Amino acid sequence: MSKEFSYWTRNNLIDSIDGDIFDVLVIGGGIVGAGIIKGLSELGIKAMLTDKGDFASGTSSGSSKLIHGGLRYLQQGRLGYSRTLLKERNYLLKNSSVVQKIWFNLLVDKYSWKKWEIRTGLFLYSLLGGEITIPKFYKNKGEYHNSITGYFKFYDGQTDDSRLVLYNVIDAYNNGAYCFNYLSVIAITIKGQIAELTLKDELRGKVIKVSAKVVINAAGPWSERVIKMAGYELNGKFRLSKGIHIIYDRNALPITDGVILGSHLDNRQVLIIPWKNVLVIGTTDRFVDDPDDTSVKQEDINYLIENVARVFPDIKRAKMLASYSGIRPLFGEGSSPTKISRDFSLTENGPIISVLGGKISDYRRVSKRVIGMICARLSLKINLKDVPKVNFASAMSKRTYEYMIRFECAIKPEDILRRREGTEIYDPESLEAKRKEVLAAFKKLNVNT
Ligand SMILES: Cc1cc2nc3c(=O)[nH]c(=O)nc-3n(C[C@H](O)[C@H](O)[C@H](O)COP(=O)(O)OP(=O)(O)OC[C@H]3O[C@@H](n4cnc5c(N)ncnc54)[C@H](O)[C@@H]3O)c2cc1C
């Protein structure tokens, strides 16, 4: 049975922890922080997670929602990384009810990778994923524009990124972890082996202090800011890259499986991903400086539409329903974002362990690695097999708005419309009607923030 997890329980708990000492404090309620707090809660370690916005309000609600091995990493020679990701993909497909298989058609034409490259790549991809599949070429029999000679099929995994975060956080909370949204870390003071953190309640303006033996910096694109806040400097290059997606009705294009096409503009891959009622089309990859700038630029929308229109000219007549963006945290050298490794790095500064970069697909591996480091620091000898668990007591198919407010700590309309239900992306046509219902639910429960 779920415990109440609401605006009211949140406020009471914030008021009760002023001056407390935690074993672990996790900064950031994206997928990395969520996986870590879930694992810590399974081990009974006294831990707290805090996010300056809602859970999953950063990059973890702006992804392509794929749990994948990154076919393109093979082309870059990153075989080991792809193998690791494929192991994670397979584990999640097998063990988690919130990750499903998705099939892709990889189109072949003069802008795609060459046919032999795709054949070799997909064979290797299957081998690295623990299978032996001889890739089959299917001729284009009129399904696609006549410039496409044919396609290869392969599969990966797919999930609801913000829901995956929420399931981890809610389960962790039900296991006894302290989890707060809209509570920012605004200052960190190192006192010997311990960190003292100043936290600001973004809803009520209240400021409290807590201490922690270990601090996990899982602040995604804001990670370097957190390191600097504690008075340290990052050794290495931390970069940010923005990616956007545009949303169309699922029937806007005549496809059932996902489609990957080569860009005639810059040789990248553009993905058309069927998801719930819509098609998610992405993505771009441009360096940016500001982790808070999630604006979607018209030139990026045009880039995606132009690429898709080459194969599906009808897209120009269809209505774009919505768009969203996310900021990738990248750690490493590279002249363009695509050249920088997507693998995560861990750095240590006094009581702070920082996670830099990484992928949703890899969240379980990064969580386990960080939890191992925490256990070593706290002198705990614990078997970490299957930590964090990937099946979620909080994952259920139907929830009312009232339930999301009372048991999933939804505090603002967008917490429901963007992340818990995702109407803004998955059902944008009914957004205004749903907004009214959501506002009525908040009013009924007396939450007006
Ligand atoms: C366009 C795009 C597509 C992608 N597609 C995929 C994909 O298909 N598959 C895949 O595996 N990966 C994908 N990724 C990568 C993946 O989305 C990210 O690596 C992942 O979401 C990062 O998670 P995170 O927890 O590190 O960061 P975030 O999700 O950004 O979480 C960090 C959190 O820290 C909080 N925070 C920051 N500062 C503070 C503070 N001072 N106090 C309190 N809280 C703070 C923020 O509010 C935020 O919620 C994609 C990324 C992008 C941008």
Written account of the structure:
The chain is α+β, with helices and mostly antiparallel strands. It has 3 domains: about 180 residues, FAD/NAD(P)-binding domain, CATH 3.50.50; about 160 residues, D-Amino Acid Oxidase, Chain A, domain 2, CATH 3.30.9; about 55 residues, no CATH class. It has 13 helices and 18 strands. Strands 3, 4, 5, 6, 11, 12, 13, 14, 15 and 16 form a 10-stranded mixed sheet that branches. Strand 9 and strand 10 form a beta hairpin. Helix 2 packs parallel to helix 6. The protein binds flavin-adenine dinucleotide. Flavin-adenine dinucleotide (FAD) binds next to helix 2, strand 8 and strand 16. The site of flavin-adenine dinucleotide has 38 residues, from helix 2, strand 8 and strand 16.
State the gist of this model:
The chain is of the alpha+beta class and 449 residues long.
